[in-house]
Specification:
3 helices; three-stranded antiparallel sheet; alpha+beta; 3 strands; globular
């Protein structure tokens, strides 16, 4: 079985972290006010937060990748 690299599987997350200098948070904080499982942050704040639950980590990362891609498109005018 050929393994796909993280960068090729989630290109928008890769761009978010390396080019946009954003960061992501994965997991629950039972003591925090947020209930989402995955979130994207940058110097301007939190432009995206995901659902409270996902069937798998891969599903959460795919959702993050799609939505970060849309945000980067809106921000920079390119995919």
């Amino acid at each position: 079985m050929v393994q796909q690299s993280f960068e090729s599987k989630y290109p928008h997350i890769d761009r978010w972290v390396h080019e946009h200098q954003g960061w992501i948070a994965i997991g629950y904080d039972p003591n925090g006010p947020l209930t989402s499982f995955v979130r994207a942050f940058d110097m301007g704040g939190m432009p995206w937060e995901g659902e409270d639950d996902y069937a798998s980590l891969d599903e959460a990362l795919r959702d993050l990748d799609v939505n970060i891609g849309a945000y980067l498109q809106e921000l920079y005018g390119e995919a």
